[in-house]
Amino acid sequence: MSGPLRIAIAGLGTVGGGVVAALQSKTLEDRAGRRLEIVAMCARDRNKKRGFEIGNWVGDTHALAKVDADVVVELIGGDDGPALTLVEKALKAGKHVVTANKALLARHGARLAALAEEKGLSLKFEAAVAGGIPIVKALRESLIGYEVAAVRGILNGTCNYILTQMESSGRPFNDVLKDAQAFGYAESDPSLDIGGGDTAHKLALLAALAFGTMPDLDTMAVRGIAHIASEDIAFAREFGYRIKLLGIAKRSQNGIDQRVQPSMVSAGTPLADVHGAFNAVVADVKHAGPFFFDGRGAGEAPTANAVIADIVDIARGNMGPVFGIPARALVPLPAAPADSATSAFYLRFQVLDVPGVLAEIAGRLAEWRISIESMIQRGRAPGEAVSIVMITHETTYAAVDGAFKTIAVSDKVISPPCMIAMEAR
Ligand SMILES: NC(=O)c1ccc[n+]([C@@H]2O[C@H](COP(=O)([O-])OP(=O)(O)OC[C@H]3O[C@@H](n4cnc5c(N)ncnc54)[C@H](OP(=O)(O)O)[C@@H]3O)[C@@H](O)[C@H]2O)c1
Q: Which domains, from first to last, does the chain contain?
């Protein structure tokens, strides 16, 4: 057995605290093949009460980067600032890096991977995508021989919790969000989660692993869930669907289409049955898949265990390229033109119940060659607001966007129309 693996940990919050507590309480020597020793730790506040023993404290990340260690574990967060500086310094100083930081890798992953590989070092990030689900290792190693056609996933537990609660309670988005904040499922500033940004970071990493491309946020279409109304959830159920926020990366003849969007998923399919704060990923793999992975996407224990799996890999000398193929072979993502992507859609229009309104909407849709598969209209008293809901046949996103622009200006339409792609039917 070789000498101990010396670990320096920056960030002692939910994930970092879990990693330290696990390393202090578990004996992983047999599994890792050597002792795992914490030689330095730091966070912002030395005096904060934490549920584990504080030892080998260093003043800040600059001091931590200089410690004689084999691995630096970055668990601070953020796509720049101290996390980025620490990871760069650690790699330049010849130290392996483990991180759970999807924001950092989605922005700087290709460059950091190149730096790590030039130096013959590991940069591992299992905890960064879907927390406790070992999807990074699966795509990077187990599925490496296959051609991946698509990855799609429920990658944000906060959004899935909110959508699940809206469905089970019938309550509106804002009420459920407040509860989610009170129960600790949502941040006080929830915008990164509900706006789809967090899912986008994770999807960028999944797409890089699946397609051998550089993580690319800039060409990704991102929509969040804040506009989803209780009646969308109820109509979805009536049509036999559930609404899920999905991150989707698909290969097509036009390139790779990456998007984050609320999506109609057929009830009874595995993705539709992922409830609450759970995450799931489906990998559509030629000649073998689809493979379905689900589990807890966040929280101390699952995320800390994913970090520990990376540390154990390094202790065993299990290296390999950061994104499954050498960083110098990663190509810029050949983004499919956003307008060329197609889907069937759920469309909801909030209109005045006056003669001619349905004909006007149908006419506008026809101008964009959008044909309707099914429709529901719920009437109230004449002259009041009603919802018209349609499922379309396959059409382009561009056609729906174009039709919406012309429909939204009608004086019979009283709020912006809602569109949700029918993703998994
Ligand atoms: N929470 C999850 O379930 C989860 C799941 C997957 C991935 N992640 C990722 O894991 C990372 C950490 O998340 P978390 O939830 O553990 O965050 P957190 O609970 O907010 O912890 C952040 C830690 O970083 C420390 N910190 C902040 N600024 C620092 C600085 N300038 N120098 C040194 N330490 C600093 C904080 O110190 P103090 O404690 O002194 O304030 C705290 O210990 C993020 O990249 C996140 O995206 C989290």
A: 5-131+302-326 (3.40.50.720), 136-297 (3.30.360.10), 341-424 (3.30.70.260)
